[in-house]
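Input/output pair, single chain:
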Amino acid sequence: MTSNGVRRDLASVPFQDFTPAERKVAYAEYNNYARTTDDLQVTSLRALLDSEELEHLHGQLCSVRLADLLEVLDRGRPVFIKHLAKLGVQKLADRQSFANALSRAHREGRIAESALLETPCELEKPVVLESLSVKELRRLIDAASLSSDDCVEKAQLVERAREAQARQQAHKPSS
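Output:
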């Protein structure tokens, strides 16, 4: 603050010229900035969804690893948006919001290594593939970045889903 009570632009003043009150403000602002950027570390797919108020998408994205989503995102935003639609994210606004959030977190380096190694929740428990619907089988296959376009019968989808599970198991970190 200047003597007339107007706050100076602290960015234009060298730190050593700050008054004690201005130093206190600058430290508080810096500490608040550091605390909020540390809090933004993405530790799991669920954490990312929750932080962006997209927790309702967890059911559709539960079968996918964050690392796999980043691989698809690297192929381009339109490809990623289409992939999310195949996974069952129906609203375009949700697909765009999630694409923005994941892109931003990736660009800013806020995705923890442990989040990339996270196991999809649907693959943690054994799944009887034959009991899944055709749509669920296609989702499982797409989540492993495999194609199901050439599968005509459900038996073919089940076989491709087994390949998808094997592929996802191979990506799983050994314990």
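The chain has nine helices and no strands. Residues 1-6, 33-38 have pLDDT under 50 and may be disordered.
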